[in-house]
Structure prediction request, 942 residues.
Amino acid sequence: MLDAAQANPRSLLEAPALQTLRLLTCGSVDDGKSTLIGRLLYEQSLILDDQLAALERDSRKHGTDGANIDFALLVDGLEAEREQGITIDVAYRYVSTAKRSFIIADTPGHEQYTRNMATGASGADLAVLLVDARKGVLTQTCRHATIVSLTGIRHVVLAVNKIDLTGFDEAGFSKIAADFRKFAAGLDFKSITPIPISARHGDNISRKSANTPWYRGPALLDYLETIDVVENGAARPFRFAVQWVNRPHLDFRGFAGTVASGALRLGDEIAVAGSGRRSRVARIVTKDGDLQSATVGDAVTLALADELDIARGDILCDPKNRPEVSDQFAAHLIWMSDGKLLPGRSYLMKAGTRTIPVSVTELKHRLDVTTLGEHAAKTLSLNEVGFCNFATTTPLAFDPYKENHTTGAFILIDRITNATTAAGLIAFGLRRATNIHLQGLAVAKQDRARIKHHQPAVLWFTGLSGSGKSTIANLVESGLYAHGVHTIMLDGDNVRHGLNKDLGFTEADRVENIRRIGEVAKLMSQAGLIVLCSFISPFRAERRMVRELLDGHEFIEIFVATPLEECIARDPKGLYKKAMAGEIKNFTGIDQNYEPPEAPELIVGLDKQTAGQAAAQIVALLATRGLIDHIDDLAADWSI
Amino acid sequence: MKKPVSPHLRRLESEAIFIIREVAAEFQRPVMLYSIGKDSSSMLHLAQKAFFPSKPPFPLLHVDTTWKFREMIAFRDQAAKKAGMELLVHINKDGLRRGISPIASGSSVHTQVMKTEGLRQALDLWHFDAAFGGARRDEEKSRAKERIFSHRSAAHAWDPRNQRPELWQLFNTRIKQGESMRVFPLSNWTELDVWDYILAEDIPVVPLYFAKERPVVERDGALIMVDDERLPLRPGEVPRMERIRFRTLGCYPLTGAIRSNAATLPDMIAEMRAARTSEREGRLIDHDESGSMEKKKREGYF
Prediction:
């Protein structure tokens, strides 16, 4: 491996310049973030004539500063923001001075937009946190400081704005700086730089202000132009996530990706993190010609000396300094969705170039971002931060986020809506995953199936209460039993009263209920049984979670699609009557949603057929799929 | 005349290549919108870098309004041929039948029908699920808030209130049947970055960007080039030769030229560093009202 000084020779030709500084501005609403950025652009003459003309026009229409130019209007782009005078989404701004280029993420101050603030923080090297000199450190200041620290930003400018409105008061400024340092002692900052400014009037923005003779530090822009905070990723261990396998013809197989950290040289040994297989770097290919070496940030295509099984999502690494590989880990989670986190539910996790199913196995605590207190919690809501244990379906290679932002970060995606629901920052791998290996079984599932003369399967009956799930499932089971097929029935009666008697009917408990049933069904199918599960199971995500627990075609989803009106009319247990009278809460179809399957293996329904006909249809499907032998005589018996 | 690529440009280049590869890896049917301008030229160059030694695994698509400068069309065909990539050209035939043109219908109807509707037609026709565009966040205020991976409903609508948070380089590429994604690899580039990169990488661009004697008329404060006989001259208008160039290229009757002597790329960059107007100033479609770009985008304009 290379150290930083031996990096890519091409980069040695380049003019020495400070790296582009990616920064975000944050702070409470009305503390003047957008005004500050507008002012910076204005003072750097980066506002062009036509933009200035539009700004003057808009200032008269929406402005909050009388006849003067309202700089905030320059950056508040969306119409709703301008009308309401708030910033509701991250805006990116680009400022170049003679010394440096900046990419500024201007982020919202309202509490309900904390997720956007976290978005702006995720790629930044430095944060400018604004406080109003009159108001001092607010709850929102603490909240933003915590998120800034959590996302790995180590350098903060505390911009004490509107200092003109306190008469340029030194004591007030010092108190705010001291208050902030006190709160930030619990955070992880390397530097905190308080600067007294007035964004509206330009004090201490581009040059030192005569109004604050007591202030000895630099003006904001001087500080930003000279501070060296960009992390030197070249000195860290080599990591490279394979993005795309490049195979133009049979003689070339290259792995396209970007060096996430470290550097490598032709001939270096690399390992595939997941499999542990090793090879050497044979070529570093670019369109501008092969390179001798590549370093952090370079987008290249690697060809290896040996044919290894490598695909998108694999991480190539330094064999002497590898990432952790585990299917369980602990991470901070910033929840970004209106729907709550449901522990046990299956989400998609995108980490690097890999997307795999994951679930929260335990919510250890919720972090109060204003006090840094840790509280017990059952769920996370929008903008809340929690510390959780996770389990994935296959092992994942990662580093702790503190050591590597690229291989330690992930997002969660809702499997139904496709929304990005959370940002995750991995803290550490959980050892028990690496130590507890799945017991190698001497007798395999197929061996058990062989002596039973049928294949294992899970028949999952889903549908509204009273749709006839249990009636049909009972008919199927008796028919199968009569022909020597080994079965077991799981339904609310035998599960809710025993294994799951600690669970209620809230959304979170329903998720856990189905998860446990899924695991039981899995064990029983491994025993070679045909498992009949009859549960309302209203959520697609949980049914999908069970499907993924099982092998290929073992999960057969049967949608008992009897319409709601029909179910209410049937009401075999009198439950609808009670639910409609308000005596039962969270009743599916009445005050809780039912998500019908999108692609079930079979749809039956008592509005169109008898229970016997439905049962016959199911048995025929099992036979067609080769799970059981054909049972010809049964269909006749059942068509009552 | 090449100049070394700065660390700033190198970082932007790597980011764009990462984005382009991500799309190729995660979508079924991506396409690269190619609008012949400098941003498209840079994007095409980056795509070729991303997949070398393979060719980019997607076609190019040009939504032709039939009012592009003739030099642009010639350049387009040659660029696609040189890249060895398939070039799809779509014209909104229905719009042509209805007689839509920038002159008869005005800029906003022409853009709506020939560009916005034309783009939707093309994406539906070929069932593309991801389309690269060369838009940059520094162009306009509503673009400053658009994601790099920008979700579109099955009706191609953009919902600025409900954008997915975009963290690190972890792009959420998941869409439902019929929905699509617009992807902007140049999001974090500025106009100057693009020109610096074109200079450093020696990327070919349409000669209209460089000053030359061209026939123009002055109309409503803008210099309009008389590119062919379709431009009806108003009473008293006589085309005259002026040394002009274009900062941005669109439909010729809607694109204002600037007087300039910058005939080479370094001259032009020097001129731009001193410029006092923003580049969309030359585009007549943006002036209708403030916030007009956001409106167009919600309807599916790029």
In short: Residues 324-434 of chain A form a domain with the Elongation Factor Tu (Ef-tu); domain 3 fold (CATH 2.40.30.10). Residues 1-16, 433-440, 632-640 of chain A have pLDDT under 50 and may be disordered.
